């Protein structure tokens, strides 16, 4: 008799040749088979027009149990709509035969990008551009010609350049995801990147500003603002002499552009860059003095409320006064939210003479200041939007007085 249990990493790890088959207890028809050699394959059994179909989802070599489960749910949903996913795969394979020499950039633009756009339109183009940029040396390759050796060689070069393990892993996983989808669609039989294991990353890096660095950063922001104001005055003097229309004067506004309010809000709220850039003015509650991070814009997919301190409140009030018609807090010229702030951020860091500090580190800076001020870690966790306390515990060493107080409890007579 086949085993009946939920197919998970644990149950697959315990799966033996003698068991032969596991039927999932949650998704009807989802099952795994193991051969005499120990090869595990995931399937979805279903009926279509009275015929029995056993649809191969993929091998345990190419799919994790969680990925197989997600794929089984997706295909079961397609079957429920009346689709014969087995025939669709056959058609995809026939198409792959017709397009035997499908190259990576063509696949990314014509197949993968439209798929990503159905999942998350905001990030779809960014993911494709990221793959093209990081793996430009693969852009003349056909899908089934991409080897693990080439990617390992690239990865080694990136490490020599000092790239962080997490950054490299993100790039490799992006490419893996694209190729795994091509396997699922029957465009290629398999890919070699399953052999490329993730680099074990040290996620304990905590970079926050010293008091002196924060002073230099704030001074640099004002320095940049003044440079822009002077440049605007000079440009308008030049245009006035030639009877050209003048640019808007920047002498009478609090902020010359979005950079200062963006950085000040990051320092005082600890929001991630993506959360900041996704904020709309409807998410700011001035009368109650808080902002709302919507679940769809949060990494954890759970919304949260972040109170506004005086500096954050005053910054937003002034910025709103300058942008009364805007939808997003930080908009580009097309009325869409900004997506990249690397250039102005790099300018500010250069003026402040601060090295080894990323925009994301402003989030660490916010958390570190809270912990050093005596705020308990669970409150810090809630403000940061961490799913559990594990990530927040990285800041625990910044509150040694709490540990000292705890130990002193057992020293009392």
Automatic annotation (TrEMBL):
Signal peptide: none annotated. The keyword DNA repair does not apply. Residues 74-97 have a biased composition (Basic and acidic residues). Residues 103-183 form the Core-binding (CB) domain. Residues 74-100 are annotated as: Disordered. Pfam families: Arm-DNA-bind_3 (PF13356), Phage_integrase (PF00589). Residues 239-408 form the Tyr recombinase domain. PANTHER family: PROPHAGE INTEGRASE, PROPHAGE INTEGRASE INTS-RELATED. This is Site-specific integrase. It comes from Salinivibrio proteolyticus.
């Amino acid at each position: 008799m086949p085993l009946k249990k939920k197919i998970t990493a644990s149950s697959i790890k315990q799966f033996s040749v003698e068991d032969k088959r596991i039927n999932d207890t949650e998704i009807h028809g989802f099952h795994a088979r193991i051969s005499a050699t120990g090869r595990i394959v995931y399937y979805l059994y279903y009926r279509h027009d009275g015929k029995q179909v056993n649809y191969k989802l993929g091998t345990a070599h190419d799919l994790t149990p969680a990925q197989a489960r997600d794929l089984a749910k997706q295909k079961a949903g397609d079957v429920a709509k009346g689709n014969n996913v087995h025939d669709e795969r056959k058609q995809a394979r026939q198409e792959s035969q017709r397009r035997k020499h499908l190259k990576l950039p063509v696949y990314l633009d014509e197949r993968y990008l439209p798929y990503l756009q159905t999942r998350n339109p905001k990030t779809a183009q960014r993911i494709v551009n990221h793959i093209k940029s990081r793996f430009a040396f693969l852009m003349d390759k056909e899908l089934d010609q991409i080897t693990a050796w080439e990617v390992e060689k690239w990865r080694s070069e990136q490490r020599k350049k000092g790239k962080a393990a997490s950054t490299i892993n993100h790039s490799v996983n992006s490419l893996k995801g694209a190729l795994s989808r091509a396997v699922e669609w029957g465009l290629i039989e398999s890919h070699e990147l399953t052999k490329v294991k993730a680099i074990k990353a040290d996620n304990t890096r905590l970079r926050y500003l010293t008091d002196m660095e924060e002073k230099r950063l704030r001074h640099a922001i004002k320095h940049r603002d003044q440079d822009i104001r002077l440049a605007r005055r000079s440009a308008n003097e030049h245009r006035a002499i030639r009877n050209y229309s003048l640019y808007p004067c920047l002498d009478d506004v609090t902020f010359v552009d979005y950079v200062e309010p963006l950085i000040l809000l990051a320092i005082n709220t600890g929001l991630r860059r993506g959360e900041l850039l996704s904020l709309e003015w409807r998410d700011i509650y001035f009368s109650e003095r808080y902002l709302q991070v919507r679940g769809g814009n949060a990494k954890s997919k759970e919304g949260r409320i972040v109170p506004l301190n005086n500096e954050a409140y005053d910054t937003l009030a002034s910025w709103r006064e300058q942008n009364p018609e805007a939808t997003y807090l930080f908009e580009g010229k097309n009325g869409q939210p900004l997506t990249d702030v690397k250039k102005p951020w790099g300018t500010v860091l250069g003026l402040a003479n601060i090295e080894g500090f990323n925009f994301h580190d402003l989030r660490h800076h916010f958390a570190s200041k809270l912990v050093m001020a005596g705020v308990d870690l669970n409150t810090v966790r809630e403000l940061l939007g961490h799913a559990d306390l594990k990530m927040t515990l990285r800041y625990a060493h910044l509150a040694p007085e709490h540990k000292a107080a705890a130990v002193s409890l057992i020293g009392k007579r």
